[in-house]
Structure formats: structure tokens, C-alpha cells
Amino acid sequence: MKKTKYLLIIIALVGLKMSAQELTCADFRIGTFIIPTSDEMKNYTITSNDSISKVSTPRDSTISNYIVIREDKTQTEWINGINVGKPEYEILEWIDDCTYRLTYDASKTELSDEKKWINENNGIVVSKSRIEGKCMFYNAVMTTNDGRKIAQEGVICAE
Known about the structure:
This protein is of the alpha+beta class. The chain has helices at 2-19, 113-120; strands at residues 31-36, 43-48, 51-56, 65-70, 74-79, 88-96, 99-104, 124-132, 135-143, 149-158. The chain is globular, with a radius of gyration of 20 Å. Residues 15-19 have low confidence and may be disordered.
């Protein structure tokens, strides 16, 4: 009797594990997502010629996360919640299932000098490094017109 109970429990656990959905890159293409802020997000690596520099920028402590509403080729990004403040409008150009180029949409809002500069330098290429649970860890790299590479690691999580 005990062996039967244990066998049923094991079968049930294996069945749950097998039916648990593993997320793929496609699951991060459309939907609502959260980008939590962390100390790692303020760190950048700049590669220029043969030199590598680590740069840390100050972060606004009032920002706890970014909410991203993503459609296939666009996304709207809000700070600390939907309809809180002014959103950022971005264009996504998918390179493959796990990689896209992000630029800012000048047709929907006036761009800051920084966002214009990003667009002028062909945007930011974002690619998956790994998926864990409901979160995709990514590398974001911008290659400037003068050959420098500015890189940052981050995470985006499904709601």
C-alpha cells in the first residue's frame, strides 16, 4: 500500500514537471513585461579599439521598475507603472527570434538628444543570454558610428 502511494506521488510530480511550460524567446515578443531595476543596470562596458572600460552611471532611486507593453514591432515603456508619467515609444526590428534592434519612435514623441544619438548610431541590439523561470536575461549592445561598443546586461520578466 505504501509503495503504491509513493509511486502515485512520484508519477504526479513527474507529470507536473513535464507539463510545466518552459518559456522561449517567442514568449517575450508580445505582452506586458517588467524590467526590475538593479545595481547591475547602472553598469556599462565600453569597448574602444583594444581597450575596455567599465562605467557606472547613477540611477534614479525613485524608479523601482519599468513596465513594457510589447507588440510585435513596437513597445511602450512606462516608469513605475502604466499611465504613470510620460511613456517612451520604441520600434523593434526583429533580427531573429531572440534578437532585436531597438530605436526610439520620433513620430510619437519628441526625442531627447540622447535618444536621437542612439537612433543615429543604429539603435541598440538586444539579445537573449538565458531564460530562467519567467525572466529573460539579455545583453544590450550599441555599436557607435566611431566603432565603440557600449554594452549592458539586464533582465525582463513576464507578468
